[in-house]
Protein 1
Amino acid sequence: MTEASSLFSDAKLVIPGGVNSPVRSFSGVGGTPVFIDHAKGAYIYDSVGNRYIDYVGSWGPMILGHAHPDVIKAVKQAAEKGLSFGAPTEIETLMAQRVCELVPSVDMVRMVSSGTEATMSAIRLARGYTGRDKIVKFEGCYHGHSDALLVKAGSGALTFGVPSSPGVPAAVAENTITLTYNDSEAVKALFAELGEQIACIIVEPVAGNMNCIPPEPGFLECLREVCDRYNSVLIFDEVMTGFRVGLSGAQGLYNIQPDLTTLGKIIGGGMPVGAFGGLRKIMEHLAPLGPVYQAGTLSGNPVAMAAGLKTLELIDQPGFYEALTAKTEKLTSGLKARAAQAGIAMTTNSVGGMFGLFFSTETQVSRFAQVMQCDQDLFKRFFHAMLDEGVYLAPSAFEAGFVSAAHSDEDLEKTLDIAEAVFRRLQA
Ligand code: PMP
């Protein structure tokens, strides 16, 4: 058993920041990250044996809880047959058939190995299909770390191409236009000016990378309308929301059909998987059928497909999402009530199995600027106090949290009891 501080010091010597993905480093909340030894159901266990109720779920994939026995069994069986072949396997077709059934806007789908690859490839496809270069995204939405998508707005106004990460060439960023999420008027104004040059809009249909912001009524409809009018491609990035807010994703929940959909997280059941799919007439532009090139040595990996396919089978049960939504609402309404009792200004959002907590005096948070105004210092203190008591929340005020089917009523009640005491202490 080794303390996290020692593991973190060793890691920092050989891994930048000690982590293989930045937010894991706790740089958003301070302190030393928890090093995980193993996980089961709703719990993760750290390197010295502490147990935490986990509301991160590997950032979304673990909708069934950790190490679900049927998923592990499927993975073991697939692994026995060989880890990778670089040639077609039947399970890839079974996966594609399943995705096409569950997500009606998807006629054809290609598997990749991460959400980043999925969105990057969907953008290339939209550009190749339309012959246009400009793309539209929304401030605060995250679509992975490819160059074209690592661009965000300056001051919330319509912004043309400011690289937000050194290393993104200005020439690439120039073609990414960033607007304000939930601002339909800005979308219409932009398209009135530049619509014919815009290849696509990419959007998180429920934003989960600026905390959790649901779409306002009419916003997704507006995106669909302008894309139809200007022959631009509408891409729903459902890497997070896919199979998380409902069996057909956010597009099923809000009843809007995008042209392309990107998937990740749950579709891999915890293995490194992403996917992009959509209308046949667009997907047929991909190599080897068409000229838009995209490929992957490990794409459609049989072990990853086994984990994903088993997960998709297990979530496809009557009442699954009703139960998940009820759990999430029990958590968020319970937290809100206890914060109010303690005199702490906090509000929440939730959709299906995802949620967000905002330390804010606003009653409804639906814009990026409101998220930025939340009390981050209070969030940090709340995060650490909860962690000390055995509740593992996302270590950032800008990330959604996730509830799994494995969270029991007792887990939720224990979380609320802990939060009640923590809120009182924070207020004292
Ligand atoms: N799109 C969305 C909506 C995401 O939430 C994420 C990751 N959190 C990505 C894309 C990128 O996925 P990955 O980290 O697997 O590259």
Note: Confidence is low (pLDDT under 50) at residues 153-163.
Protein 2
Amino acid sequence: MGKFVDAVPFSGIIRIRDMMYGIEHPFRLDQGDVSFDAPGTVQQAMHRAIDDNHSHYLPTTGVPRLLDLLAEKLRRVNRIPVRTPEDLMVTTGGIHGLYLLFQSLLEPGDEVIVPDPAWPPCMGNIIAARGVPVPCTLHEHAGWRYDLGELEAKISPRTRAIYVNSPHNPTGGVLTRADLQAIGALCSERRLWLVSDEAYEDIVFDGAEHVSPASLPGLYDRTVSLFTFSKSYAMTGLRLGYIVASDAQLRERMKKLLFYTCSNVTSVVQFGGIGALEGSQECVEGFRRELEARRDLFYAGIREHAGDIFGGTPPRGAFYAFLRMTDSWPPPQSPRAGSRSWAMAEHLISRGRIGCVPGADFGAAGEGYVRFCFARDRAELAGAIESMRAVFTP
Ligand code: PMP
């Protein structure tokens, strides 16, 4: 790698984070983190693991009990026809899963079709594997879904995979079962891998359905599915994710890289994962319900106090408001590199202490939008709205 890594982009979210550290009493709506704490079942299981001296090396792909529980969950909840727990491995969070997967899947120059906008580490990990992300627009008017004709037109002789992320960061769009069936059919016809990032599988609103593409008939063998405990169990800092893939060669490659990057995922954290899965799942539904209420509060606040500045329909999944900037907000004299969304983000951070991420950071189709995370607690959301009112009051 060496010099090559210099050419791999770093996410603008990091630049925003650095700006936020310079602000006193900030509203941290920039970070994709929930305000909840991990449930007691996770804490107690980790305490027990410490008391029981689980401080030694483990099997590379994961603690057997955790793999068993995950295989059972994937079959029961996601309807994925996992054959044995050997079909999966745990990772140091979902981001590590993406790293292992793209390094194992791609030859230099291979293309992966990604949504535009998209979560920047998706592109970063493809580029780090010497692959080429090929953006395909998600359309706001279609609930941030693809035009399937456009998606098909992006396939070239170099295409190796289509990456989908539903519910989606940053837009909150949720792909329908029919969308995923059509994308799966494309992958089968054109002999492509389907990479499914299901980080927000538990966070859907208004009765929307989360569908795991690997559960659709005939698709398990060409799908690699990535999951994480980060959002469902408020375990962002603990770093626990998992990958399921039926292809043994691909798994063998990922296992090798898993070993070389961390030997095994931290033992205590894996026991925390066991606690999460053995315990009551009420917390997951509790978080989801509260996030739906926060979404509604946030959008009501925006409509009332910044309705002439921002537009957009409440999302059906994930926990981001990806708001369209109307033409009524005048950009300052020198917007950063001509980007209105960067100008807006800098304005809100410097004048209003409101953390947010410019849409341009998620790809060309994100320009003109700003992302706010509404998974912060209600007081912080209310503070951000009040501050926004003050910023935009002439
Ligand atoms: N995929 C997407 C789309 C995400 O937004 C995130 C978290 N921001 C992840 C994967 C992975 O999260 P983690 O590494 O915390 O598991």
Note: The chain has a mean pLDDT of 96.
Protein 3
Amino acid sequence: MGLRKDFLWGGAIAANQVEGAWNVDGKGPSVADVATYKPNVDVKDYKKQVQITQDSIKQAMATKDTTYYPKRRGIDFYHRYPEDIKLFAEMGFKTLRISIAWSRLYPTGEEEEPNQAGVDFYKAVFKEMHKYHIEPLVTLSHYEMPLALAQKYNGWADRRIIDLFVRFCRTCFTTYRDDVKYWLTFNEIDSVTRHPFTSAGIIPDQSDNLLQDEYQAFHHQFVASALVTKICHELIPGSQVGCMLTKLTDYANSADPRDVLASFNKNTMNYFPADVQVFGRYPELILNYFKKNNLHIVMADGDLEILAANTVDFVSFSYYMSMVSSYDENNLTLTSGNTVVGGKNPYLKSTDWGWTVDPVGLRISLLQLYDRYHKPLFIVENGMGAQDELTSDGKIHDDYRIDYFRSHFEEMIKAVDAGVDLMGYTSWAPIDLVSASTSQMSKRYGFIYVDEDDLGRGSLNRYKKDSFTWYQKVIRSNGEDL
Ligand code: BGP
């Protein structure tokens, strides 16, 4: 069988991790611009890594320094996008997933009219992609919102954000209607409870009841996502809108039924936001979880109808690792879980950052998602963070990365052979960029090396890694030559 003839091979990046130019041409500060480089935090403690307070934001905004705020500088994609897109085209990309920085179009989120320089920037980026017949896949919210909205409203915890986001999206649809057909609403929508600031602009010490605010934010994002899906379909005939979840595939630690129960709970919480976006309603178990935990989600009249009437066209997801759950006597209800890295799995190796490498897990994920949702799937992130060495003759021998991708592609193809309808695959990330969780540059994902270190030193020159030519061959053969 093999992959579709029109399989969308490509790569994925996000505005806040590549663009830089955080305060030029009218862009306002975003939540990403106050994220600090934290080299010494235990990578297993995801919550600590992304911890943010009202004070840390004030401190960050008192300086224009980019050394310790790497997302402010990214990899200078803002100025170098023609060179980068040309390299993607050389690999044969059919698609490129990017995101639009809300704060580049609406600096504080509340302007009536968009910032023209921001609008023009993305127009130019799309033009460059089309020059090489690269189909844009655009995320409307990828770990980025105007900082002002986080400070003033506590982000998505406040219902007023819905209208502001809809205004931003409407601008995107009207301006880029001829450029973009594939849209995603919220990146890794399930992550609100894992890192509320990055994902929803919630400043934890500004919340009286953090868990309540997180679930309220979920609800607002669901409504916003549904409204935006409707508007997109109206404004761009033939467009397709997808949801995007982090597929944190969880295994029971043993055949002990109680471990199986723990794992079921974990997976159910992981699926829930996509369930709402695909089925158009809240799962009963989640509504009961709200009740049991005294969470009172305020829903306006008509919200449930909006969710029901505007479900997504396809399901996209990121897949990096699998996790393991064990029974915990003190925790018998569904839990959101606050770590990304689960228990140890003796059958799997891990990356230097402790993320398990589990290609079969990708196949399992594809089968599970297709069986659950019966919608076309799109792998929009998958890859391995590693430290690379640039040799004196400008080469990077990254066999480990090739091995990672090869093993994942083999399993992906087996899932397609089993009947999964898969639209495409975009690697995270085709070019080295600033890490979302650690703000490191040294956690490298790309087929293209960027000469920049954690503190922003380097020429920013781009170099092709060995994996560059390998991926080019994979795309050319539509996955037959691995
Ligand atoms: C996902 C995010 C991306 C990306 C990736 C790798 O969660 O959607 O933005 O960064 O993970 O994570 P990290 O950069 O922390 O290694």
Note: The mean pLDDT is 94.
